[in-house]
């Protein structure tokens, strides 16, 4: 395998990325749009881009992901894609009848300079957008940022288009979900309901990308945040935005446009981040934390105590998205593990500062980096210099796991070689128990597989 040629020696690189720890902006835009009820994502670019975005989402969620494309050809690449998009809008409303088309750009349409706002405006002027239907657009050039940037841009675009303040405050809290699984979105709603808080979760891919098998195909499943709900977010008391990279832009937009103040918190992964999330909910909803939530926390602390002797001091390498990595690394530090190598392909200055705070003096040997050159190649080089006990990240780590013989927990996006991951939450106190169970499971499987005969134990 090609990774066997990875060298130990790390050389400074300024232009070359090898095996990036990220994917492309429109995939995030597409995922965010799928979290809106009755919405069809539309890729303004070539068919190849759209196929890639759809297939990555389909392979991760194991659900058919629908999206349309402007189908650029050589002509549109030279003369611009306006005619294609106008025709597409006409066809899509006529044939597939969505409530909303969420258009995102691609590298190609951005490079040739297509102005999505102007084209959508022309579609409206030309009467191609039927009464009561909507076209939302977001700029998502993939040569900057990552899939996380695309997600954030599309979430912001929806807020900009729909949310509206009528000066009639509703006793409701907005929850801007970061990029998490449908099961996580369901779990966030469950926690909020336990706290007796009326909320709008946006985007919400539960019951969209984890629908029950009924034998009948539904192009627009029952899930997703509705247009009315997104509009009403402008009248909410407060916004709790999960994840600086995924949700901050939309929270600022809501604040500026509708005067809804926000509190920015991490995605509730692990003990401390869930504590902060629950506290933020309690403050935003002006409610106290119920005993049922404290009991869930207590169960997590009990499991941490049971597992501590096995997990203590284990060296871990992680890769993925900043909003997931920060609370996850903090969780590992909380339970006395050693997250020593961390990379994220998503740029953003806050990463290094926040990661340094999280790791503090507890893991002084930790190496972490984000941006284009923070790739899987660098991660592999670090591991070759000094190995780790555990890998945590998306499917692309399986090559390192196989080459170096290191136990591997799949977490993040995309997971292309396993099924079922999107049905079990990793957020909240219960989700943290699942993370612990997965980590200990692979570590003990390794111990069983490699223990000499005389040390192979029934009870561990
Ligand atoms: S060309 Fe750009 S938008 Fe299209 S798939 Fe590649 S990175 Fe993504």
UniProtKB/TrEMBL annotation:
A single MF term (Gene Ontology): nitrogenase activity
Pfam families assigned: Oxidored_nitro
GO cellular component, one term: molybdenum-iron nitrogenase complex
Keywords: ATP-binding, Iron, Iron-sulfur, Metal-binding, Nitrogen fixation, Nucleotide-binding, Oxidoreductase
Complex and partners: Tetramer of two alpha and two beta chains. Forms complex with the iron protein (nitrogenase component 2).
Protein name: Nitrogenase molybdenum-iron protein beta chain
Family: Belongs to the NifD/NifK/NifE/NifN family.
Co-factor(s): [8Fe-7S] cluster
Domain called Nitrogenase/oxidoreductase component: residue spans: 24-443
Enzyme class: oxidoreductase
Protein task: This molybdenum-iron protein is part of the nitrogenase complex that catalyzes the key enzymatic reactions in nitrogen fixation.
Cofactor note (record): Binds 1 [8Fe-7S] cluster per heterodimer.
Gene3D superfamilies cross-referenced by the UniProt entry: Nitrogenase molybdenum iron protein domain, Nitrogenase Molybdenum-iron Protein, subunit B, domain 4
Catalytic reaction equation(s): N2 + 8 reduced [2Fe-2S]-[ferredoxin] + 16 ATP + 16 H2O = H2 + 8 oxidized [2Fe-2S]-[ferredoxin] + 2 NH4(+) + 16 ADP + 16 phosphate + 6 H(+)
Catalytic activity, EC: 1.18.6.1
InterPro entries linked to this entry: ChlB/BchB/BchZ (IPR050152), Nase/OxRdtase_comp1 (IPR000510), Nase_comp1_CS (IPR000318), Nase_Mo-Fe_CF_bsu (IPR005976)
């Amino acid at each position: 395998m090609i990774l066997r040629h990875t060298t130990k020696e790390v050389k400074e690189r300024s232009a070359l990325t090898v095996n990036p720890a990220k994917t492309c902006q429109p995939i995030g835009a597409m995922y965010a749009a799928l979290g809106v009820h009755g919405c069809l994502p539309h890729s303004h670019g070539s068919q190849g881009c759209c196929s890639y975005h759809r297939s990555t989402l389909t392979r991760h969620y194991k659900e058919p992901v629908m999206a349309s494309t402007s189908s650029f050809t050589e002509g549109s690449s030279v003369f611009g894609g306006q005619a294609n998009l106008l025709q597409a809008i006409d066809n899509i409303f006529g044939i597939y009848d969505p409530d909303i088309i969420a258009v995102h750009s691609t590298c190609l349409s951005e490079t040739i300079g297509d102005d999505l706002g102007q084209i959508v405006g022309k579609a409206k002027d030309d009467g191609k957008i039927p009464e009561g239907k909507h076209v939302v657009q977001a700029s998502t050039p993939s040569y900057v940022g990552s899939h996380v940037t695309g997600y954030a841009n599309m979430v912001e675009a929806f807020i900009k288009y729909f949310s509206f303040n009528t000066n009639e405050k509703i006793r409701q809290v907005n929850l801007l979900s970061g990029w998490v699984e449908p099961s996580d979105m369901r779990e966030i709603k469950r926690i909020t309901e336990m706290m007796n808080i009326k909320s709008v979760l946006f985007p919400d891919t539960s019951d969209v990308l984890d629908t029950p098998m009924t034998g009948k195909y539904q192009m627009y499943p029952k899930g997703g945040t509705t247009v009315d709900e997104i509009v009403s977010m402008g009248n909410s008391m407060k916004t709790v935005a999960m994840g600086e990279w995924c949700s901050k832009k939309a929270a600022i937009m809501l604040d500026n446009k509708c005067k809804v103040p926000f509190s920015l918190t991490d995605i509730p992964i692990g003990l401390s981040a869930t504590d902060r999330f629950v506290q933020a909910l309690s403050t935003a909803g002006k409610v106290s934390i119920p005993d049922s939530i404290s009991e869930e926390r207590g169960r997590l602390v009990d499991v941490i105590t049971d597992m501590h002797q096995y997990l203590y001091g284990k060296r871990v390498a992680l890769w993925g998205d900043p909003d997931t990595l920060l609370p996850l690394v903090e969780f590992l530090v909380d339970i006395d593990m050693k997250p020593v190598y961390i990379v994220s392909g998503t740029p953003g200055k806050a990463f290094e500062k926040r990661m340094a705070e999280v790791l503090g003096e507890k893991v002084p040997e930790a190496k972490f980096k984000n941006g284009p050159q923070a790739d899987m190649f660098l991660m592999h080089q670090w591991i070759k210099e000094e190995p780790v006990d555990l890998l945590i990240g998306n499917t692309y780590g399986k090559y390192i796991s196989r080459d170096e013989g290191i136990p591997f927990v799949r977490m993040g996006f995309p997971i292309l070689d396993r099924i079922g991951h999107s049905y079990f939450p990793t957020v909240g106190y219960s989700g943290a128990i699942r993370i612990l169970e997965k980590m200990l499971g692979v570590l003990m499987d390794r111990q069983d597989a490699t223990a000499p005969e005389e040390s192979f134990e029934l009870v561990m």
